[in-house]
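3.2 Worked example (two chains)
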Amino acid sequence: HQIRRITEMLDGCRRVFIYGVGSSGFAAREIQFRFMRLGLDVEAITDPHMVKVSSVLIDDNSLVIGISLSGQTQEVTDGILAAKKNKAKVVLVTSNEELQIRDYCDEILHVADMKNLDFGNKISPQFPILVIFDILYAYYMENDSYKKVQKHKETLSALRMK
């Protein structure tokens, strides 16, 4: 049910901003590329300075997705607070159950947690983030799939053009 609610947010917004720093930033860029190919106006913002700058562009037609396994990455939490102040919808992807910014999020997507996952010394910290977004992507494709498949074909054609 939660994934369905988030896909409805994606369908109902004009623009999506994805905030992530470090490994979460790498995942944000992959997510941007995948959803952009379906015609969604999405931007991954991985630079702390640009998180602040982008907050000026956010409004009630925006969706902000923050990615922070710890739930405490200052740049991401600052971006979430600014987004909520501007009446945007907010989704946080985290493995932290005890969040101080819980009240500023419309949805919190919890991902798998492993001690020291953020250090990347056992498995990539991007892995649980990308898995949950693969699921989200599949649900997103279900709604108005003809239009999204057509846009996907158009973007693939654009990539093949010489």
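3.2.1 Second chain
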Amino acid sequence: MTEPLIRDVSDTAFWIAHHRAEETGRPDPLAARLAGVRGGEIAASMPHSRIVGWTIVIRTCIIDDFILSAIGEGVDTVLNLGAGLDTRPYRMNLPASLHWIEGDYPHLVDYKESQLAHATPRCELERVRIDLADRPVRQKLFSRVNSQANRILVLTEGLVTYLSVEEAAPLADDLRALDRVRYWLVDNFSPEAMKFRHRKGLGQKMQNAPFKFAPGDWFGFFRRHGWQSKEIRWLADEGERRRRPIPLPPLAKVALKFWSLFLSKERRDELRKFAGYVLLEPC
């Protein structure tokens, strides 16, 4: 029996790094080194790989902008949970005084450090080997970071989607308990997006790393745990703004445009809010 390309959630890091490396408008040679052959193999095996690649590019743009804006507001520490093979400390124009902390599985951190041994980050970079599912261990990390920082931005790019509601709730509570956290950046996938994944075969390909976070009322879930939305950026809007619309086949574009003529404004707004990124703040 052939071993699946995605054996667990940590393998998705190679996939994401491949799409970052493929982005010609924002070259990231370190991402190519990290993705390796495995990242390309995973990407090639996925249905609708061009659309997935577009999603990664646009979400990267959104997150970069949020980070720079937060730094401009005085954030001095970024806590990147489930950092995977992210290269922002090397790629972005960050102040040298910024403290960037990455937390992820030990084997991913070991691999990343071996591949980037000769690269120099642009800020103060710390990596922590941690299983974030171990609540007492992560609370200890959170407490240390909170005691050392003035203003913290928490980044969970692609992390919460792999958690169940029952797993995400204590994470939200643990972060809310930190008085130095100013922002938390989180993925938002609509129920339609989740259905699309299953309909198009992504769910089957990722059965060892399924999307699980489906609270029904997404914003209500975070409000119950002490978080409110400060700003939202939807992928569709950002793609249009950057003149990088979703790369649908020509016939699909025509069909979608025709179909949209018969939709209500409310339904068009729902489709526009297919997926995005939300900057949360304590409430």
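3.3 Remarks
The CA atoms of residues 24 and 92 lie 16 Å apart.
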